[in-house]
Amino acid sequence: MSTLGNILWIFLGGGIFIFLGYLWGGVVLCLTIVGIPFGIQCIKLSILGLMPFGETIRYKPSAPGCLSTVMNLIWLLFGGIWLTFFHLVFALICAVTIVGIPFAKQHVKLLSLALSPFGKEVSTSL
What is the extent of the structural domain holding 98? Predict the structure, then answer.
């Protein structure tokens, strides 16, 4: 079921545009030394943005608390709030129709990772 959801997501839920946008941003951020940690998070978001069905987001048990909090604050100030806002808008647009409700749930999943990506990991749920 998650394979069918991912295929429909790519074409109907905007998955290809989310993937390309986050991937482009991640590559650009990785060109600078300072931006590498943020670029890695963008690439993580791009992979989840391409195939969100069947994936879960959970906190890393070994995540450093202070460092991930500081990095999340920097992320939030320099673009995370806009990414979160756009995923919220797309979730509301998808939720207007009954057919789009599964896509709205995936946008909310992406919203939570776009708000604070440091200290979280994406895992496949069976």
Answer: 2-124
pTM: 0.86
In degrees rounded to 5, what are phi and psi of residue 124? -80, 125
Main-chain phi, psi angles of 122, to 5 degrees? -105, 130
CA distances from 95 to 32, 36, 87, 101, 117 (A): 38, 35, 12, 5, 24
Q: What is the mean pLDDT of the chain?
A: 88
The contacts of residue 103 (CB under 8 Å, 6+ apart) are: 9, 12, 13, 94
Q: Look at the chain and report how many structural domains it folds into.
A: 1
Residue with tokens 């999943």: 109
Tokens 């482009």 — which residue?
24
Query: In 7-45, which positions are buried (b, 16+ CB within 10 angstroms) versus exposed (e)?
Result: eebbeebbbeebbebbbebbeebbeeeebebbbebbbbb
65-103 pLDDT, tens per residue? 788 889 999 999 988 899 899 999 999 999 998 888 999
